[in-house]
Amino acid sequence: MKKRFFSVLLLVVVALTAVCLVLTACGDQGSQEETQTLRFSAPEGTPALAMLRLVTDNKTIGGKNMTYEVVSPSNIAVEMSAEKSDIVIMPINAGANHIRQGADYKLVSVAVDGSLFMVGKKETAGEITIDEIKGKTIACIGKAAVPGLVFRYVMNGNGIKMIEEGTPNAENSEVLVKYVADGNAARTLLVGGQADFAVVGEPAATAFKGALKLNAEMNMQTAYTALSGKETYPQAGLFVKKSLSDNEAFMKELFTALQASKEWAINNAASVTEYAKANLYESAVFPEPSIARCAIDVQVLTETKKTEIVTFLQTIMPKDSQGNAIDWTKVALF
Fold it and tell me: Does the pTM of the predicted model rise above 0.70?
């Protein structure tokens, strides 16, 4: 009788222990999910501006802890290719190409619409015309990214033959192009007299004009529109890991935070540089006049917008680096 009693008691204890272990494991798993830390990265400049206030105002989103990193433009691709970040803002063509090659992300928004300008100095202040760049040297950021692709699209559309640095100097009907990694490199070429004009994004374009006393610019959005008939183009995209993009509550809160940050920047343009230096990166410079021209978007993609993005990619990047045709309509971007 006693043996049977102890046997039953032992079974009960074992069963209760198993239940406790299961409950503890579930509790730990739930706790880990609630306290999961996500990384949100963006390159210096306007893309970083898109997440300006999130750094201080949104330590958590959707119950998940958030960290925010501003990296060099030349390093942003690694954030997606190595899956270092859960959320990435980067040139829309580069991010889309990573997805085409198998990256487990979705394009959920256009973070930055077109905000490129060619800036420089000439005898008569004002707009830089196509004729005025013939025979000149131009520094251009992002050779394989949207800036370089849009620049080439505009040049080709206007019949300008471009010669890249390393080949014979440009003749009267040609342009010598020096592709650079970022705005700082373009600035160095302008200051050193090694380039007549530079194609850069905001806020660099406005900062250059003030600091270097430049008196001329070409609005690359206007030049693009004249050829394409499109009002603007998607410059930087907001890419999110697929598993995270399926979390509706998280995504809703993320877009609310991004919109609030955008509105604050627009309404407090004079304070953006000070705030960005203190919370984003120390070298941040966002002149007040540049904020409106930074063209922050961060809206949920509509079907119309998705179609525009695919059309843009097919226009500026119809082939891969090996010259093979890309059918962007068959790439699961969204």
Answer: yes
